[in-house]
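Need tokens for this chain, all 528 residues.
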Amino acid sequence: MRTWVVRAGENGEREQTALEEGVLLVGWQGLGDLTDVTTREDVKAAVAAAYPDEGPYTVGNWTGQLYRFVHEIQPGDLVVLPLKSWLVAIGRVTGGYEYRGEVTDGPHHVRRVQWLIKGIDRQSIQPDLQNSMGSLLTVFELSRFGAAERVATLAEGKPDPGRPDADEFAAGLTEPTKLYEEVRRRAADEPLTLSIRDFLAVWGAQRRYPAAVEQIKSDLDERGLVTVPPFTEGSIESKIAVLAGGAEPDEAGTSAVTRLTGTGSLTSAVQSAVHAAGHLPDAESPAQTVAYRVSNLESANRMPECVRVGDSVKTAMTLMVLRGYSQLPVLDPDGRLRGVVSWESVGRAHLADPRADLKAATVRGLEADRSDDLLNWIGAIQESGYVLVRDHDHKVCGLVTASDLTVQFGTRVRPFVLVEEIEQRLRRVVDRCIPLDRIRAVVPGRRATRVNSAANLTFGAYGHLFKDADNWASLDWAIDQQHFLTALEECRQFRNDLMHFSPDPVTDDQLLPAQGLLELLRSMDPHG
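Here are the structure tokens for all 528 residues:
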């Protein structure tokens, strides 16, 4: 079973018909019957023939949506219909694609659906699923974060259960006060542990922006709480423990933090959480700043495949072939690095002695501390292809490769490229359609005289510019003004957040509003 969103028009103009008649309806009135159009290429040809003035991007985009509606959506699938009242309807698809050629004043392309529930408040849906519904496409699939199961639960009138991989208990910590109460309730040897992602969500944050970090630090200090390791370190999926760090010592004169880190009977999850306790800042020292730490990469927190001192060189070679590795760390019984064995080192050792063992084939390996600044290691990783990562006990805890860097920085560059294209398209359409005197009118004071084109506008000025009725009419866009302004404001907020440093990558769901706006701008100006 799959789950889809099928909208009822840009302004919800088809939603009443959809709900009353038990159907899904999409537009594209200029397109004929698609019943016998079976392949994606055939759909594309039909779209291109029906809309000859549209560019390749728009034709491709529309083809994907129509192909989903006609062929990919199956009877039994769930469908979500966002309503203009900010409610949501959920139904189950009961029939195949139909073409209503006899209809003269309404949509021709239809699927039958049984509505299971018609009045779900969007506020009862958790933010990650709401964001997934935020695309401006008419037809798209909800496939992330267990969407199908969650929508099925909502259709039964039950609350959104949240991400299947989320900590169920953490999901109940909806505000700082609840977190404080839970920490106080627990015994020192059973601390509250949760992911950094779930910890940030207690404050309504998704990434570690400086303002959010300072607010959380201030709240923790006020309550005498501390996280072990610091929540500013590690990837966003790393586990931390939340402790009453300011509590007075017990009868033995030890603090909660010392008792926790010195206990040998803790669960593996808690042991992992406290592993970097040695990095706790002195209470009197200045607050640590968030940076690109080596530990911010997930691979730096994932134990790599390895061989141990005393293993045979055949074991190392077998593992490298099976896993497709170029090198393996060689660890001692305590998990500390003793060197690296690679195909090159094995070859050199065997040239000197065909009977060379693992020790002879082991060479020195690069090793970074998980708290090191990642930027300082980029050159070494690019040159050697890797660096091993150690924790505060100097035990190997991860491996960062050049491909990890490529993924990390590729993920970070993507949002900036997306926002830059949005800004370029906005500048071009403004310069082409709106006179300079009206552009200057949205800039206050003397600064207006220094405006020579849209390139001199701030991003926020576009919202003021497009609110004006004359300016909007000059665009001659067949889209809803209010929805466009809302999307523009969401993008402005996303852009502002993006400009504030955070070590955490932007997720696909967080990109959706900006991606939707870009798709809309491309559709309005397909030849750009």
